[in-house]
Design goal:
The chain has 11 helices and 13 strands. It has helices at 3-17, 24-31, 35-47, 66-75, 79-92, 97-109, 112-116, 118-137, 229-238, 265-274, 285-305, and strands spanning 52-55, 58-61, 139-148, 153-165, 170-175, 180-185, 191-198, 209-210, 216-217, 221-227, 246-248, 256-262, 279-283. The strands form 4 sheets. Strands 6-5-4-3-7 form a 5-stranded antiparallel beta sheet, with helices on one face. A hairpin with a 4-residue loop joins strand 5 and strand 6. Helix 5 (79-92) runs antiparallel to helix 6 and helix 10 crosses helix 11 (285-305).
């Protein structure tokens, strides 16, 4: 392919990896191609092993695609690298707020209890290896003695695993008994039994998307906010991955528009409630109603405690 076409393919890959729902027109505009060329490029990706899927009329690139999964693996920290970073941060002390923020983010992103415990690390590595093999061969598995805090049960789960997530701490599966896609934590299973049975519900497999507030879900909500200087600065500091979603407000000087897709109102709700006087909700009536209910709930709780 010519260099110009190669550049467009790379741009398309980046846009398809975006977890936000963008229509065909937006993708064409961002990549700089016509609809006809876009469909040609999508077919080119599929013919080269990329898994392209369509959800709610929008195209996405499955991160399980061989090339993408190799890149993800190459940028993940090893257990030894994580421990080294963690220990180095600890030598600075707890008085540095930047260091404390880094520690909190690392602790939220990686399961250090698993990293530090050698027996647990071996157990996890064995489970991950079995799940990776089952996913590659599209085989069903039985999650042995899975502990569920919701149903307060300890039982085996028959599932079709199709995506390892969160640095291999979780696995996304289709559970055959309930007919629902669920996320199972590796730490809550004693082992995994790989079966000879092939997947029979592959069309029902749905990916889980994670927003910048670290909430995950299959569905999205688009929220638009007008931020003042304080809330804009704090958002960029706390959620640097969301900086691309913040643009200057053309109608209000010293204000910015945050236009972002979220999986759950709780993450962005916490941010808004903490800086309520500096933020205006522009769009998503459901989110506006959620905030009003949260304010009412907090008021009723405060009155009751008095």
């Amino acid at each position: 392919m010519r260099n110009e076409t190669t550049e467009k393919v790379l741009k398309l890959i980046l846009r398809l990896l975006d977890t936000s729902d963008h229509g065909v027109e937006w993708i064409c505009e961002q990549v700089g191609v016509s609809r006809r060329t876009l469909y040609y490029l999508l077919e080119f990706l599929r013919s080269n092993g990329f898994i392209v899927f369509k959800q709610r009329g929008c195209y996405h690139l499955d991160r399980r695609s061989p090339f993408i999964s190799e890149i993800v693996k190459s940028v993940q920290f090893s257990d030894n690298e994580l421990l080294t970073i963690w220990n180095l941060l600890g030598t600075v002390g707890m008085g540095n707020e930047t260091v404390n923020t880094l520690r909190r983010k690392l602790d939220a992103a990686y399961d250090f209890s698993t990293v530090i415990s050698t027996p647990e690390a071996r157990k996890k590595a064995n489970i991950v290896k079995k799940l990776e093999g089952a996913i590659a061969r599209k085989r069903m598995v039985r999650l042995l003695d899975y502990s569920s805090p919701h149903s307060h049960t300890l039982r085996d789960r028959l599932v079709e695993p199709f995506l390892l997530m969160n640095n291999n701490r979780d696995v996304r599966c289709y559970e055959t008994s309930s007919g629902i896609n669920k996320t199972f934590k590796l730490a809550r299973m004693s082992d995994v039994e790989v079966l000879d049975d092939s997947w029979i519900h592959e069309k029902e497999h749905k990916q889980m998307f994670t927003d910048v507030f670290m909430f995950s879900g299959e569905s999205h909500h688009n929220v638009r906010l007008r931020l003042g200087q304080l809330s804009r600065n704090l958002f960029i500091e706390e959620y640097p991955m969301g900086v691309r979603n913040v643009q200057p407000d053309p109608t209000y000087p010293d204000h910015w528009i945050l236009d972002i897709e979220v999986c759950d109102y709780r993450g962005i709700g916490r941010f808004v409630l903490g800086l309520y006087e500096d933020i205006e909700i522009l769009d998503d009536d459901n989110f506006r109603e959620y905030i009003q209910m949260e304010i009412q709930r907090m008021y009723e709780t405060a009155v009751t405690e008095k």
